[in-house]
Amino acid sequence: MIAFVRGRVSAVTLSSAVLEVGGVGLELMCTPATLAGLRPGHEATLPTSMVVREDSLTLFGFTDDDEKSTFELVQTASGVGPKLAQAMLAVLSPDGIRVAIAADDVKTLTKVPGIGQKGAQRIILELKDRIGAPTGTAGAAAVAPQAPWRDQVAQGLVGLGYNAKDADKAVDAVADQAGAAPDVGALLRAALQTLSKA
User: Which key words tag this protein in UniProt (predicted)?
Assistant: First the structure.
């Protein structure tokens, strides 16, 4: 297994980063918060988790070991695969996930695209005794930093002549369509549609 990857950042996309290690470009699937901290041309070290499937080998990269261990632990709950685990970390910080599970907070967990009421209840039931206590002082509002796509869509709308307040409202209106790998172009079009109906 590959525990971490250290190398020069060659490229950053909306859902992944390519790190050059010994002349080989390794693609790591990452959350928006992790990607926001990477700069092409700079060195980076990311803890990784490798998911092996019959038809693919996928490397997931993380900001720190806490994010990595949370990613691996939530997958032990039935119905949670790597994509859903990554979506949980895109919406909530590791402490945010721990607080939500410890507090039986179904509402917070259902903010994650792909988790419904029953799924959230199952995750809480299966992980409550194993998730551990929050490491920081953050409470239930331990949500990951604002996703980069939100700024991109808002700036696009302002560039098209809308004021910042309307742009923010439109971004909020399409936020549930973002998912784990947001398509900024599609979200911008959706936001424009909501503004044209207003």
Answer: ATP-binding, Cytoplasm, DNA damage, DNA recombination, DNA repair, DNA-binding, Helicase, Hydrolase, Nucleotide-binding
pLDDT digits (tens, 9 = 90+) for 72-82: 999 999 999 99
Burial tier of 152 (Cβ tally within 10 Å: 0-12, 13-18, 19+): middle
Angle between helices 94-102 and 82-91 (to 10 degrees): 100
The stretches of the chain forming alpha helices (DSSP H) are 32-36, 65-74, 82-91, 94-102, 106-109, 117-127, 148-159, 164-174, 184-197
Q: Find the angle CA(93)-CA(98)-CA(101) to the nearest 5 degrees.
A: 125
Q: What is the set of domains in the chain, with CATH numbers?
A: 4-61 (2.40.50.140), 65-127 (1.10.150.20), 148-197 (1.10.8.10)
